[in-house]
Design goal:
Elements lengths: L1 H23 L2 H21 L13 H51 L1
Length: 112
């Protein structure tokens, strides 16, 4: 019964994270996040033997799977970072534009 409660807690936390991604980033980031979810599940399956349903493939296929999962997780992390940086730059530009408008009007007032 305890594992059901723990599963519910993890599900709740996952839904909170996905909700914040939807409202913080773009819809494409949400779709990309779904792929990240799958990659994270594969990663956990590779790490934790009790989650495995089938035996893992042998060399060289397991290395290809590891590389693909790591690249997928890294790509999502980088994409999320780029989205956050773009949003920060837009906010800084908007704040900078508002400040420039005030300084332009002051210069015009002082010249008259």
């Amino acid at each position: 019964v305890a594992w059901l409660v723990l599963s519910g807690v993890f599900s709740f936390l996952y839904n909170i994270v996905q909700f914040s991604v939807v409202h913080t980033l773009s819809p494409s980031a949400t779709a990309f996040g779904g792929n990240f979810n799958k990659a994270a599940l594969i990663f956990l399956t590779l790490l934790l033997p009790f989650l495995r349903v089938h035996e893992l493939p042998g060399y060289p296929y397991i290395e290809v799977i590891w590389i693909a999962v790591i690249i997928n997780i890294a790509a999502f992390s980088y994409y999320g970072w780029l989205q956050i940086e773009a949003k920060n730059k837009d906010q800084a530009r908007l704040l900078g534009d508002n400040g420039d408008d005030d300084s332009d009007s002051e210069e015009e007032d002082s010249s008259q």
